[in-house]
Amino acid sequence: MYDIGSPGVTWGDKEKKQWFNKQVIKRSYHDEVLLKVLPLASLFDVEQYGALTIDKARYPLYAIKSKNWQADKKTVLVTGGVHGYETSGVQGAIRFAQTQAQDYQTLFNVIILPCISPWGYETINRWNPKAIDPNRSFYANSPAEESAAALNLMQSLDTEIYLHIDLHETTDTDNSEFRPALAARDATVHDNWNIPDGFYLVGDSTKTQADFQKAVITGVEAVTHIAPADDSGKLIGVDIEQHGVINYAARELGLCMGLTDAKFVTTTEVYPDSPNADDENCILAQVAAITSAIAYAKNN
């Protein structure tokens, strides 16, 4: 049983405040993210698009954009850190900006939101300070300011988002902390506790783009192992569409993957707790997913 709330009773403001008061700063957004992002201003337009009200000075939100932005050019969007605790999503987005993004600017506009949830990054959390999951909150009048800020930015761009790749992780803390907290908050029962060992993708079930997903899996497979289906032919309780790929209804669930009307869209899932992976391998897998996705979109 989770240590906040009562079984069978959804959380109110009191319980959410108790949860918030348990959270502690465990790492530095400034040192691990901003000190890498801000120097990229020599290569890109690094623009602040908001700040978290819990501490606007500590948690500014930045986008990394092509300097030669052209509204009539197709745009590649990379998002990371929607769930702040998913480290390789943030660091993979930054590594792509540092090493690869410039190579694609003649073909596409490139925009990278490397850390959508900086408070979650510092406290190593799935939720935001109000115990809201930003990755279930990408819709109009969102209660999650992290999601709302990204939505507002996208609406201001006046360009076609052709490709969107959203970088995530699935970790052992999903079972030790986040699923128990979710069950307690919502007074629900969670039956599936399988964590796939390896990389996989989540596509949008309304536009699955099977060949695109396959191309990304093939590119990542050169860097790290792909998660096998479980004994029932599923990943995280969902039927596989093909090797390493499942599908969710992006807009219906309020996922970041549904942030735009991009033709090509996918969410990555890296497993950093695998005995066959390490931090660097996970970052490289995220970069491989991005570059493989762009390579496919370039030819289609």
Automatic annotation (TrEMBL):
It holds the Pfam family AstE_AspA_cat. Its cofactor is Zn(2+). The keyword Zinc applies. PROSITE patterns: PEPTIDASE_M14. Transmembrane segments: none annotated. Residues 25-300 form the Peptidase M14 domain. This is M14 family metallocarboxypeptidase. Keywords: Hydrolase, Metal-binding, Zinc. It comes from the Bacteria. Belongs to the peptidase M14 family.
